[in-house]
Specification:
Chain lengths: ~210, ~230
Amino acid sequence: MYTPWTYNSAPTEIIIRNSTMNSDEQQQLKSWLYDIATDRDKNAFTALFSWFAPKIIQFGIQKLNTESAANELLQETMTNIWRKAHLFNGDKGEATTWVYSIMRNLSFDMLRKVRSNREDTLSEDIWPMAEAQLVQEDSFDDHLMSSNLLKNIDILPEAQKEVVKGLYLEEMSQEQLATKLAIPLGTVKSRLRLALIKLKQQIGESK
Amino acid sequence: MITHHPHYELLNAYVEGELPASLSAGIAVHAEMCEICAKNIQRITEEAAANTFSDDANVYNSLSKKVITDKAFDNISEFDLMMKSIMEDDSITEMMTQEPLDVEIKGTTYPLPTALRSMAMMGWQKLGKLSRARINLNEGSLHTSLLHIDKDGGVPSHTHKGFELTLLLEGSFEDEKGTYVKGDFIWLTDKHTHTPHTKEGCLCYTVADDALQFTQGLSKLLNPIGKFIY
């Protein structure tokens, strides 16, 4: 089964075929994810669920062989989407890629449980998810300051408002704010990003 | 510069979650150090996602051997219940920031790659300039280890009964074919015989599916220690 699968020189960059997904569809998926993230929007989640469910079931049956395992994969994948939507960053990639990574990771851990009898969840270490990239991203600052977004601050949920106020009105650093609010630094960053998405939408609507 | 990279087929299997944890981690660690492979993995993932979720997925599926019964799709009410139960719990998952972990061997501290951080690692066993820590993944005949070779150490001429993946985490080593550096992803089979030696010392992540076989004269006497390294 294993062949000497290595290149002894630099591999060329892979050029992928034209995507089989059209961009309107990708845009729709992204906006559902954003609605889930910012408003816990149940209609958006229902739409997203209906769109992905049959495909996740198919993938699950192919990889895991049984319908009950495929159902478990669906449940776990959709639960992750519901709880992690705020970590999705549409600037970094498509919604399909993000959902695929979540689904593939869960299916890997499920398969490992069957094949190696291990309950560990190694997938999150092996495939560092998009959410980890967020840590390096600090480019919100200029957007917020320069574009007068702050005037709409009152539309934000309390938790996000608190973060935006702390960072921009009280001029604390993200680290200081995390300490003051006793929340992880990652939470400050994701609340800030959600706030930005929401404020941007507001600008769009008022035009 | 890194000159040894995983093949496209291997990256593809990695993206699809088909490889065992030991090899998946090897590719992940290589990609952390190799921009080209990281980029290619990203593209393969985008493509795999688009293919899996496009409407053509049905066509693809009818060609595969697994038959999808209609039952899975008829269970609308079951899906409805699942959806509702998910939305009942309003908690969100916060991002975790992880502290870096280290491994220490022979007085030197090395950072532990992210992909290996949750794996069960046994204690170091030492034999001269060689030290090995087994990583317990329970993958049958696949044996995964961290292997440290101290300065000016080496392994006598040997071959591999099955295959052996060596991923250089730190340092460098040479064999008959050339010099290998940090990040190199080296895949050897029973067709290869080599005598690795390191001047500066090195730390490797290894995955092998059978014991080493020593090939030259007196070093054949060492065959019992092949099991030590394997």
